[in-house]
Amino acid sequence: MTDLLAVRDLGVAYANGRVMAVDGADLTVPRGAMLGLVGESGCGKTTLARALMGVLPPGARVTRGSVVLDGTDLVALTAAERRARLWRELAFVPQTAMSALDPVYRLRDQMREVLCERGGLSRAEADTRAAELFEAVGLHPRRLADYPHQFSGGMRQRAAIALALALRPKLVIADEPVTALDVIVQRQVLDTFRDLSERMGLSAIIVTHDISVVAYLCGHVAVMYAGKVVEHGPTEAVLQRPSHPYTMGLMNAFPDLESDEAVLAPIEGSPPPLSDPPPGCRFAPRCPFAVAACGTVVPPPTTLAADHWAADHWAADHWAACHRVAEAPALRAEARRPATWQGVAERLA
Ligand SMILES: Nc1ncnc2c1ncn2[C@@H]1O[C@H](COP(=O)(O)OP(=O)(O)OP(=O)(O)O)[C@@H](O)[C@H]1O
């Protein structure tokens, strides 16, 4: 079966093309899958999510590539055609639910607006569906009579998820849906997504800077660095066998919950300015494994060789954009040593 969403070589520019916030990004979302889009601040996650939704801010535009949702290239559609697909095909859950919910309307009225005006339901049908949606996200239907300010942060976020699901969209895109919440409430909201995924086969992209959110919730992951997706695959494969040096470095920056070996080695330096990225691999200036080609040639997405994974059925879906991908097992071992990451900038200079 084809993937629900296939993004190929997507480019998005701000400031008349001077800042390429997304520069040749590739990703896929299989049907019924949750994809975690992970990367550090400023790597272009929000821009990519907004480009998928077709709601870029003024001054931003898609410069190249395709976004094929269920067989239709959304980039080729007019703005009006794209707007008509919002809610129905693609729905958005923002970081703070307050930007999805209108403070002056009761939740029931906001549900009615989407369900009646966009979905063509009668009021009675809309009210029944709204109650079902609230139940699906763990809220009592009685709370539909409340205003957003009467909800706690976690409840508001669940109400925003219910609203996003109103017209049974094919794909939900959630931008840092738990970042603004405290840890216990984060868990409740993540469990809501997990439940929806298991019970309803929800397909979603979860944008996050937090690998532990991906590990908890997402069956697939796309790792983004400086405007590009550098590694992509089933979460288990990517987290157990990171194959791009940036992913290896990210993993080192998170404590391993299953072992006492606390190797916390930061990746030195910072991502390049997107107005003037380096030629070749964008991670090369911070990469302990960079070779001459990395400074000049952009590495293409390369599927991991089958022999890394002989027995694993998901091997074919795991790729990394690194010239040294064939050496990934050896590099991974090196990457676990904190010394590997020390003084990289000086060594490369
Ligand atoms: N309106 C804008 N005009 C110009 N540049 C912008 C604009 N919005 C974002 N950028 C730039 O685009 C790049 C990507 O930003 P984006 O917000 O997509 O990244 P992000 O990974 O989502 O970061 P964060 O996690 O901090 O939200 C950044 O370098 C940012 O400075």
TrEMBL record:
<keyword id="KW-0067">ATP-binding</keyword>
<keyword id="KW-1003">Cell membrane</keyword>
<feature type="domain" description="ABC transporter">
    <location>
        <begin position="7"/>
        <end position="251"/>
    </location>
</feature>
<comment type="similarity">
    <text>Belongs to the ABC transporter superfamily.</text>
</comment>
<dbReference type="InterPro" id="IPR003593">
    <property type="entry name" value="AAA+_ATPase"/>
</dbReference>
<keyword id="KW-0813">Transport</keyword>
<keyword id="KW-0472">Membrane</keyword>
<dbReference type="Pfam" id="PF08352">
    <property type="entry name" value="oligo_HPY"/>
</dbReference>
<dbReference type="GO" id="GO:0005524">
    <property type="term" value="F:ATP binding"/>
</dbReference>
<dbReference type="InterPro" id="IPR050388">
    <property type="entry name" value="ABC_Ni/Peptide_Import"/>
</dbReference>
<dbReference type="Pfam" id="PF00005">
    <property type="entry name" value="ABC_tran"/>
</dbReference>
<dbReference type="InterPro" id="IPR027417">
    <property type="entry name" value="P-loop_NTPase"/>
</dbReference>
<dbReference type="InterPro" id="IPR017871">
    <property type="entry name" value="ABC_transporter-like_CS"/>
</dbReference>
<dbReference type="InterPro" id="IPR013563">
    <property type="entry name" value="Oligopep_ABC_C"/>
</dbReference>
<keyword id="KW-0547">Nucleotide-binding</keyword>
<dbReference type="InterPro" id="IPR003439">
    <property type="entry name" value="ABC_transporter-like_ATP-bd"/>
</dbReference>
<protein>
    <submittedName>
        <fullName>ABC transporter ATP-binding protein</fullName>
    </submittedName>
</protein>
